[in-house]
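seq:
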Amino acid sequence: MKGEVIIKDWKIKGAIFDLDGVLIDSMGVWKNLDKDFLKKRGFAVPQDIDKVVKSLSFQDAAVYFKEKFRLSQTVAEIMGEWNKMVFDEYAFRIELKPGVREYLIYLKTQGIKIGLATSNTRKLTEVVLRNNNVYDYFEMIKTGDEVERDKNFPDIYLLCAQELQLKPEQCVVFEDILPGILSANTAGMKTVGVYDQYSKHEWEKIKANAALCILSFEELTGRGITGVCQK
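struct:
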C-alpha cells in the first residue's frame, strides 16, 4: 500500500530519525569539541561526560557545562562558541553514514512521511542536511529546544508524530542512544537501534531494548530490515 511500509509485521507510515550518530558520522566532532573547549579553560574532560550530555538538548548541555565547571560565560555565549567551533565541520565536512541516502530515497518513493528529532541546533542540522543534499527528504524537523524535556523523555518523538499527523504506533524511530530508544518505546513507537562507535559501550543494552538493530543502513532494503537483533 502506498504510504505504508512493512518492517517485520509492523505497518509503518512514518519514520523519525535522530541526526548525530544515526544519519551522520559526527559524534567525534563533539568529543573533540568537549576536549578543546575544556582544555582552553584548564579542565580535563571527565570520563562520564559523554554519558551525561548525549541525551541533553544543546541548551541543556550548555547549562550543564556552565554549572559543572562554574563558567563565567552565559549559556547563550557557551552555545555561540560551540556553534562557531563546529560550524565548518557541519557545513563542509561531515558526511552521511553509508546507506542513508538510499534508504531515505526508498522511504520517499513509498510515500512514507519522514521526520527528524535531534538534540542539535536547527542551524547545524539544516546546514549539514543541505550540504549532503538530503534536506528536502524531511517533511519536518524538530530540535531539542522545541520541547521542554530532553531525550530521556518521549516529548520530541511525540511532537514529531503529531507534526506528521500520525499516531505514535504508526511511526518507527531510528536512534543510536539508549535513552532515545527507551523514550520512543515509552511513546508507543517501534524502535530501531543504529550502531555508532561512540555509543558502543551501551550497544548490548540498545540491542536488548530496541525491536530491531542495524550495524549500518546498508542493511536496509526495499523489502524491509534485516538487522542484528530482532524480537
